[in-house]
Design brief:
Chain lengths: 222, 112
């Protein structure tokens, strides 16, 4: 659902591509609900199982989003296609398309939070109060909980990956301007790797190689 | 590196129009006030309309001064290291206290 790639501790040659490539295998985990009936199937025991796919075609599209936001305020960016003031139509419209969205920011005095669906933070701690703030003004300390900064995923070395499919619940990126400036311009750079999926029968080799796409409930497990 | 040069025959001028996915970072400013009839009091403004945000549903035009500079009549001023870190998030605009075509401004900048 969402990954942040760590900085490499070693280099390999030849290098490995950052984005999903033609011929790669992916697997939607068993937590995906059966409402995604092109990506899952119900087995003979009535359990929903995620399906395996091979990537048949890819196409990379770049896109920049830019907002000028006053200090102590935020802007929600809704990646979904659901019509709203803030939606950006970054979900596929075909069932057999996966969008792998790689994103990063230009230097700015900002904090970013990720939620899916709206209001539910992906990252938080287990103690009940250790949740990033939702109502303004943000707590001076908790605002830094689970907040991504520009150095976590620079514009020219994007490290955050988000995976979207048709009809997924709205994925929200909340961009907050921290104190210290009157206004800030936040530029989010994206590479949208559009992957066309071809269903395959899972073999042991495919199961070992496939990249697992988790459902968002698995990211929190609370 | 782009640059722009203007004469201040008009008191208010837009030096650089905003590029939506970048900030304007001046790397050098040269102010030639030698042919002007009076001292120049200059304001470099950052002019933009903010985005719709959680608190502001109908944003209004903002004008934020980024640099205030006085240059005596008959003199020149060159700024390079002094303006390091200065940035404009909208249009870069200059205002001279009184229009004077003898005052010339050169503005060299990066879009980052």
């Amino acid at each position: 659902m969402i990954d942040q790639k760590p900085s490499p501790v070693a280099t390999v040659s030849p290098g490995t591509p950052a984005l999903l490539q033609l011929g790669y295998y992916i697997h939607f985990s068993d937590a995906w609900p059966n409402t995604f009936n092109q990506l899952t199937k119900v087995d003979t025991n009535g359990q929903t199982r995620g399906l395996y796919f091979q990537i048949k075609t890819t196409n990379q599209t770049t896109y920049d989003l830019s907002y000028k936001i006053p200090t102590g305020d935020f802007r929600d960016v809704d990646f979904s296609n659901w019509l709203s003031t803030f939606n950006e139509n970054l979900y596929p419209t075909n069932y057999l398309t996966l969008y792998e969205i790689q994103l990063g920011w230009k230097p700015a005095n900002m904090l970013a939070y990720f939620m899916i669906p709206a209001g539910d933070h992906i990252s938080r701690l287990e103690q009940s109060q250790m949740i990033p703030p939702s109502a303004l003004p943000f707590s001076p300390t908790l605002r830094y909980l689970a907040a991504k900064k520009t150095e976590d995923s620079p514009y020219h070395d994007k490290r955050i990956f988000v995976y979207t499919v048709k009809d997924l619940e709205p994925f929200i990126m909340r961009l907050y301007v921290d104190s210290g400036v009157t206004f800030e311009k936040i530029v989010t750079g994206m590479v949208i790797n559009r992957c066309r999926l071809n269903p395959v029968q899972a073999t042991d080799t495919i199961k070992l190689k496939a990249k697992e796409i988790l459902y968002y409930t698995e990211e929190r497990w609370l | 590196m782009p640059s722009v040069a203007v004469t201040m025959g008009v008191a208010t001028q837009t030096l650089v129009t905003e590029k939506l996915n970048a900030k304007i970072r001046p790397s050098a400013i040269f102010i030639d006030n030698t042919a002007a009839g009076a001292d120049a009091s200059l304001i470099f403004n950052d002019v933009f309309t903010p985005s719709i945000t959680n608190l502001v549903a109908v944003p209004v035009l903002q004008t934020i001064p980024r640099l205030l500079i006085n240059v005596a009549a008959g003199s020149c001023l060159s700024l390079e290291d002094d303006i390091k870190g200065c940035e404009f998030i909208g249009n870069a605009q200059i205002i001279r206290s009184v229009a004077d075509a003898g005052c010339r401004i050169s503005f060299i900048y990066d879009l980052e």
